[in-house]
Amino acid sequence: MAHCAQAAFFVVATWPVWAYPSFSKPVKILVTGGAGFIGSHTVVELAAAGYTPVIVDNFQNSERSVLQGLERIMGRPVICYEADCADTSELEHILQREGNIAGVIHFAADKAVGESVQHPLKYYRNNIGSTVAVLEAMQAHDVHNFVFSSSCTVYGEPEQLPVTEQSPVQPAASPYGNTKQVCEEIIRDVVGSGARLKALSLRYFNPIGAHPSAEIGELPLGVPANLVPFITQTAAGIRQQLSVFGHDYPTADGTCIRDYIHVVDLAQAHVRALEVLAGQPAEHSYDFVNIGTGAGASVLQVINTFEQATGVKVNYRLTDRRPGDVVQIYASVEKSKRLLGWQTQLSLEQALVDAWRWQQRLQGR
Ligand code: UD1
């Protein structure tokens, strides 16, 4: 049965490693925050692609039961260390213990925009501290491939749509957004210093959905801040009513537009990112790329699509705008196609059906 090693020195289990052309064997990838929403789905896709994911998570924002879900999907034990990713020495112990880590995907971070306004130091300590610690540990152990979990929030309210990577980074609207910007700058500076590091920041748009098996998905703590978990919880009767924040925006139906990407597609982008880094001859490189579908959907479109795809009604009402929301943003996907040879495969309908299946699974627990 899956459990997570409490001390960073202890490994739970291991399994055979397959070769992957771009990396030398064995191909272990450290996944910080690997028990979280995007991290757990990426662990599945890494394993499916033949890698051995090694999770580091402190379970501050995730549940240990995720490990069992992962094992059921993957059909094999999960390697997991319970550790704080802001602690360089703990990370170093893990890298030492595992040996031959070929790359790191760094998810571990707090991500609630509102909370970050209330508790900025928590965000600066956790998000920036963990990025610094991970990079330090990588340097100490000669690990050179780094994929960073960034966000389209760096663009603020974009002047042109779809938003390309050339669009200027805008002053951050929240401490959370600022941590993503600062971490991107830290990575760029480390590469600029001549350190042996190949790094790619993936600027995600709005990740939604769940694994189609409904073994893993999003686990919002308390009242969800994000749209899709609020929709599924309202449809399930956990929440009485969904508030649609703003209906007088300059969009076709007056509600905000976002680029909602299925978390499985997003997870696969991370695998591609690693492969691209591994195949790069340069010893020092840094780049950033949008990870979205290229299409925008309004809040009302998401609700309607959910209702049509699942046959379940969502009780909602139109309310005031939420402070800080951008009006509309969706990705230009040209660079991700070119750089990663990747594009999304799954539809908004599929993502909402999978999110609903996951919600129903949670109800049954
Ligand atoms: C936010 C962050 C993003 C972060 C993401 C995941 C910003 C600008 N964006 O995205 O960086 O990665 O959360 O944590 O900081 N909505 C409702 N009712 C609700 C909830 C949401 O109408 O109950 C609307 C919002 O007003 C918005 C859309 O749904 O128009 C999406 O909101 P949300 O899911 O919170 O994501 P973002 O704010 O786009």
Strand content: 15-25%
CATH homolog superfamily of the domain at 28-205 and 262-292 and 332-344: NAD(P)-binding Rossmann-like Domain
Any idea of the CATH topology of the domain at 28-205 and 262-292 and 332-344?
Rossmann fold
Low-confidence stretches: 6-21
- End-to-end separation: 18 Å
Reported for the largest beta sheet, the result is: 7 strands, parallel
SSE pattern: EHEHEHEHHEHEEHEEEHEEHEHH
CATH architectural category of the domain at 28-205 and 262-292 and 332-344 = 3-Layer(aba) Sandwich
Q: Estimate percent helicity.
A: 25-40%
Q: Please state how the strands of the largest beta sheet are arranged side by side.
A: 3-2-1-4-5-6-11
Quickly give the structural class. Answer: alpha/beta
Short précis:
With 365 residues, the chain is an alpha/beta fold. The protein has helices at residues 37-48, 65-74, 88-98, 113-118, 120-140, 175-192, 227-235, 263-279, 299-310, 334-340, 348-363, and strands spanning 28-32, 52-57, 79-82, 101-106, 145-151, 197-204, 206-208, 242-245, 257-258, 260-262, 284-291, 297-298, 316-319.
Structural key phrases:
single chain, 365 residues, alpha/beta, Rossmann fold, 7-stranded parallel sheet, 13 strands, binds uridine-diphosphate-N-acetylglucosamine
